[in-house]
Structures are given as C-alpha cells and as structure tokens.
Amino acid sequence: MGVGANVEGKPRASHKTMSDAVAESGIYSILETAGGVSSLFFNAVRQMLKPPFPWVRESIVEASTIMRRCLVPLAVAITVFMVGFGFFVLGGITKILGASDREAGAVIIGFLREANVWITGMIFAGVAGSAMTADLGARKVREELDAMSVLGLDLTKTLVVPKLVAGVVICPILGYFSLLIVEIVNFSLAPEAFGFTRGVMVESTKGSLLSLDVLGAFIRYVIIGALVAVVACYKGLNAGGGTEGVGKAVNQTIVLTFFAIWMLDAFFNLGYLSLFPQAQASFKG
Amino acid sequence: MAVASAEPAPEPDLKQADKSALDQTVLAEMGELIVFMGSVVRALPGSVRYISEALRQSAMMIVSTSLLLFVMYIFMGIVTMNTGYFLLFPLGAADYLGAIGAFGIHVSAVIMFFWVFVSKVCGGFVAEIGSMKISQEIDAFESVGIDPLRFVVGTRILATILYIPIATVIGLLGYLTGCYIDAILILNALDPAGFFRFNWLSQGISDQLFVLTTTALAGITTAITACFYGLRATGGPAGVGDAVAQAVKINLVIANLVGAFTVILWYGEDAGVPIGG
C-alpha cells in the first residue's frame, strides 16, 4: 500500500494519503484510460512493423467481417439521413432561397465534410467497435488471454494488430461507399422533387467539390478507424468483473468513441475551413 | 440469414439446438420480434405493480445518459451550424442561420437521440438481460412465480417511457445551445437577436411535438428490441457479446426507419420556413 502502510505492512488506521485519494478519483481513471489507449496504439504499431507478419491473414478476415456487418445498417441509415436532411433540410433551404439548382453541390459538400463522417463513424463504432470489445472482453473473462500469454503468444500482435489494420482499412472504404449511396439517392430522386435536370446536378457537384475535401475526409476516416479499433481493444483487454464487466466495457467503448468522433468532426471542420479558405467559398454552383 | 449463416464457425460440430438457432432466417427473427413486442405491450399494465423497479431503472437511465445526451446535442448543433454557415455564406444569406437551426430539429437533432439511446441504453439492456439469461436468473424469476416479461422487460419499458419527455427537453435545449455556441460565439456569423428571431419564427409547437413523438416511438421500439435480443442470448459470455452486436445493428436500422417514417408522416413535403411565402 506504499505510503499509507506502517512498518509491518498493515494500513494505518483511517489514514488516507493524497496519492490514495487521487488514485480513487474519476480523473485518474480517465487519465489512465487515455494513457493506456495511447500506449496500446504505439505498441500495436511497433508490433505491426516487426517481422514476421502473422496478422495479415487475420486482418483480412476481420476486415471482411466488419464489412459484412456494417454494410446494411450503413446503407439504411445514410439513405434515411439523405432523405431527411439532404432533401428536406438542405433541399428545402435552397428551394426557399431560390437556389434550387445548387442542391446537388450543397449535398455533396455537406455530406462529404460532415454527415458521412459521423454516420459512418458511429455505425462503425456501434457495430464493429462493440463487437471487438465484446470479443476480447469475453476472452478475458474466460481467461483465454492468460492462456495465450502462457503459450507465449504476444497478445498485441495476435489480437490487436489485425483489428487495428482492419479498422484503418475498412473505415475509409465504408465512408466512400456511403458517399456513393448518397449520390445514388440524390441523383435518382432530386430531379423529380426539385425540378431540374441531371446535367445541372452534375455541373453543381463538379463545381462544388474540391479534391481537398476528399483528402480531408480520408484523413478523418483513417483517424476514426484507428481510434475505434484501439479503444475497443483496450477496453476489451481490460474488461474485469465477469460478464457485467464485459457489458460495461462495451458501453464505455461506445460512449468514448462516439464522443471522440464528434469532437474530431466538429473541430477538424472548423480548423480545416479556416486553414483552407478556398474550401469556404467552394459552394459556387 | 446472410448474417447468421456466414459467421465463421471455429468448431464445425455444433449441437443441434445451437445450429437450428443460427440457421433462423432474418424474416423469422423479425416475425418473432413482432410477436414479442405484442406480448410486452400486453404485459405492460401488469408491470405497473413493480413501479419501484421501474423508477430505479429510470433513475439509472437519467443519471447515466442525460449529460452525454446534452453534450452530444451540443456537438450536433455545432456541426449543423458549421454546415449551414458554409452553405449560406457564399450565397450571402448568412442571416438565415437561425432558420437552419430550427430546421435541423426536424431530422438531424432527433437522429442524435437515436445514436445515444441505441448505443448506450439499449446496449446496456441487452448486456444486462443477456447476462441474466446466461446465468439463469430469468429462469429463477419464473420458478418463484415472477413473470420475467413484467419484472425484467416491462419495468425497463416503463422506465423508457418515463425518460422520453426528459430526453426531449434535454435534446431541444442542448441543440439550441450548440447552435448558439457555434453561430454566435465561434463563427461570429450574426448577432443573437437575428439568430433567435429566425429560430423562433421557424419552429412552432408542432415541431417540438414532432421531436417528442419521434423520440417516443423510436425509444420504445428500440428498447423492446433490445430486451428481445437480451432474452435470446445463449452460449456464454461470447453469446452475450454477439447479442449486443446484433441488437445494436438491428436497432440502428429500426431507429432510422422509425425516424424516416415519422418525418414523412408529420411533414410530408412542407418545409415550413417563413421566408418568401
């Protein structure tokens, strides 16, 4: 017990030191989580680059599992959001302002910069992140992780690296796939709803889209993929307290990753639009 | 069906009972879910007897989710104002940001409730009820004569119903706060009076009622679905994890469909913005 114990190692009667108080507080656990996640990330990257590479096959299997699980919820969610936010809100606003032909440009920059990132991120975190945490947490509860350590397998290299690689690879793919769905829905339904031709939509999209936007979205997806994978693995590997602990770990993963995705999105966009003024004025139609 | 039969099976010889559960098609599962929803609605009046448990569940829900919901709604307001500002600014219509603030309530703000509720509250329900199921606590309830549909599921649904008005109010306030923070404080796009004028011009009581209705419909539907998947969890802790993943996945789809349905039902094609007639 350190400072709080007397010479024979028994704790002093009702004596709580400052270090004990700090260790029990909520702030410490937040810092501990942050430190643990970062160290797990760096450890995973280091293990990933060290030969041999047994994680390649595992990560392909992981990636295909994530892709399979995420496609349908992502397609439905992005379609619903497109019809609701894209048509009713963005389309309604441009129609009222008389700028109806710019609806396609508004949709693509609004969705590429904002909506796609957080919808894809949240589906990815909710479906894939919670599955990763539940998987590793269940293994921890059944002491499978200890058995693997006894056998001499490095947990990070065997379990964390495939999930990290799968997350980083799949998240941009899902992001651009959802953008494809947005454009399919837009191009199918908008001309009849707003009364312009598809040629107008193509021109508006071409005029508003910057390659900088696509690159910015890619960077964000990669960060989100890595973040979700590492946080999920950390929470899963440290899930204590039986099955309730696994439930709590899944809960914490989802809360933490949702928060992080939203903060990243809000502040990345503010910074990006300030640093690159040509992106601000890109909505020219 | 595509989900269940394509799962990588590490042990090729499954017991017959588990195998038949895995082979169930999506349609059969959805059918069972609808039947379950009916039986929960039928059991709800009986679970008023366990109102103390419902209040306890509601208290846990309020304490754990309110702050997160409020902060997420603030972020949603910030992001919506970002999009709206950089949409309207090149058109020279930056003064109408308040209208976008009110508009956003229709769709984007309600979606935030779906995400937070489905992931946190429904995930918690599935994990809790799933753990109860695999440790045979549900069977123990039945053996002492307490109907688990009333005591376990019904009280959680009552807790959700109690939580919904609170979540609506938190959502509306949080969204307004987020819009204000972004439009006035961060972007300096317009003055507060202009922002609030268009904000209150563009929404009426029917918009607030829309938020309440969508929140209620989506919340109750996803809560019942979560309890359904929790009660069907088999196969140890890994089964609970699978149930959580499956439930969150299905709930995200259901919540979005309910939201879309309610938007179209309530609004049709009328945007309701008081500009230009």
Written account of the structure:
The complex is a heterodimer of chains A (285) and B (277). With 285 residues, chain A is mainly α. The longest helix of chain A is centred in the N-terminal third of the chain and has 42 residues. Chain B is mainly α. Helices cover 81% and strands 0% of the residues of chain B. In chain B, α3 crosses α9, α4 runs parallel beside α7 and α9 runs antiparallel to α10. The longest helix of chain B is centred in the middle third of the chain and has 39 residues. Chain B is elongated. The N terminus and C terminus of chain B are likely disordered. The chains are: A mainly alpha (285), B mainly alpha (277).
Task: List its salient traits.
heterodimer; A: 10 helices; 82% helix; 0% strand; B: 277 residues; elongated
Most extensive interface? A-B, 69 and 67 residues
- Average pLDDT of chain A: 83
Overall helicity of chain B: over 70%
Structural class of chain A: mainly alpha
Strand content of chain A: under 5%
**What is the strand content of chain B?**
under 5%
Kindly report how far apart the N and C termini of chain B lie: 50 Å
Radius of gyration of chain A: 24 Å
Count the beta strands of chain A: 0
The biggest sheet of chain A, with number of strands, parallel, antiparallel or mixed sense and barrel status, is: none
Distance between the termini of chain A: 68 Å
Report the average pLDDT across residues of chain B.
80
Rg calc of chain B: 22 Å
